[in-house]
Specification:
The chain has 12 helices and 17 strands. The chain is an alpha+beta fold and about 350 residues long. Bound molecules: flavin-adenine dinucleotide. Flavin-adenine dinucleotide binds near residues 130, 134, 137 and 180.
């Protein structure tokens, strides 16, 4: 196998859901077999499994990591922690979630409580909280922490079945924050929360000639900044966000906290670049058409406008973005027409 093929294996397109093979999310690497997976229903059950287990143990989150990182041997144990899901406690400064809570659910819960994290969300939010923390997952922006940076305490079941609560400030807490699953099984995480804030995101397409300086300047001038570099076209799509002003906040509240799209011409200057990128993605992923979830991140760069919303609506694909909403409204309009009685 060539080095390229080993490092970047192609996706398997003929996966049979009834098969015993357990694939990673990208379906380009086998993690192990389904019969190796155990799903403890409680911490006591998990402790018992760890006490009895002989071989290696690998926790699987949403399996988004590269396959060779998650792969186990035939005699090893795979742990599905999906029973450790959802909010379990809160106080004025923090909220505790089960380790396998998907980030999307973490963000929705916090938004419902009028709170947010100080970390910038990644592009997607289907990762589990513990899986994202274990790998140091983060969004862009020099002024924000990674998700693990907002942990105040991390509850783990250790080898041998004992339970330890790692607390922020303890000397070995940083190891527990980004552990790659090597220290133990994370069953719960308490996250530091701050007040919910609304942002207005200014979107631009610019040349990449001065990207090195621009990145620092954008991060200096805006609390939230995120950029995508399309290397083939030497173009950068940049999103810079400030806290919304009173008018913007009012419009957002009046719109039932839906993303506000600002008036003005939608900018189509990236559309050709997007078409080219989609062609590359079709080839690499072997997924045809533009409807797949994998393509949404890129297609939303078409016809972009400035928008107002919360950090998760604006920066994270897990929540429906403005472009998605626009497309859905258009589709709903089309459907409504199709269903008009004669
Ligand atoms: C399409 C895509 C987009 C992505 N976007 C971003 C991004 O914007 N920013 C970014 O930083 N990363 C990004 N990533 C990387 C991704 O966030 C990480 O791979 C993350 O680990 C995935 O979380 P998971 O729940 O799938 O964990 P998994 O991949 O299943 O597991 C990751 C590691 O965590 C361990 N683990 C999982 N759960 C537990 C637990 N409860 N206790 C102990 N150990 C555990 C596993 O054993 C493994 O070692 C992206 C990946 C993909 C495929």
């Amino acid at each position: 196998m060539s080095r390229e093929a080993h490092l970047y294996p192609l996706r398997h397109t003929d996966v049979d859901p009834k098969d015993d093979v357990l694939w990673n999310w990208a379906q380009n690497a086998q993690i192990g077999s389904r019969h190796q997976v155990q799903r403890p229903a409680s911490e006591a059950e998990l402790q018992e499994l760890l006490r009895q287990s002989q071989g290696q143990i690998r926790v699987i989150g949403s399996k988004l990591s590269p396959g060779r990182m998650l792969h186990v041997s035939e005699q090893d144990l795979l742990l599905d922690l999906s029973a450790f899901n959802g909010q379990t406690a809160s106080d004025e400064q923090s909220v505790t979630f089960g380790g396998a809570t998907p980030l999307d659910q973490v963000y929705r819960t916090l938004t419902g409580m009028n709170r947010m994290l100080a970390s910038s969300p990644g592009v997607i939010a289907i990762q589990t909280l513990a899986g994202a923390m274990a790998t140091g997952t983060h969004g862009q922006g020099l002024q924000q922490s990674s998700i693990a940076g907002e942990a105040l305490s991390i509850r783990m079941v250790l080898t041998g079945g004992s339970v330890r609560e790692f607390r922020c400030g303890e000397p070995d807490f940083p190891a527990a924050q980004v552990s790659l699953g090597a220290l133990g099984v994370v069953t719960a995480v308490t996250l530091r929360t701050g007040p919910f804030r609304i942002f207005t995101c200014h979107k631009n397409a610019v040349s990449a000639d001065t990207l090195e300086q621009d990145l620092l300047r954008w991060n200096d001038e805006y609390p939230l900044s995120k950029a995508w570099w399309f290397v083939d076209d030497n173009r950068v799509h940049v999103w810079n966000a400030n806290e919304a002003n009173d008018d913007e906040r009012l419009r957002y509240e009046q719109q039932d906290r839906q993303v506000v799209e600002h008036e003005g011409q939608a900018d189509d200057s990236l559309n050709d670049t997007i078409d080219q990128t989609l062609a590359h993605m079709n080839r690499d992923t072997q997924i045809q058409g533009k409807g797949g979830k994998q393509f949404r991140t890129v297609t939303r760069f078409r016809d972009f406008t400035d928008v107002t919303g919360d950090i998760y609506q604006l920066f994270c694909r897990g929540h429906r973005g403005a472009a998605d909403q626009r497309r859905n409204r258009r589709a709903a309009g089309e459907n409504a027409c199709h269903h008009q009685p004669d």
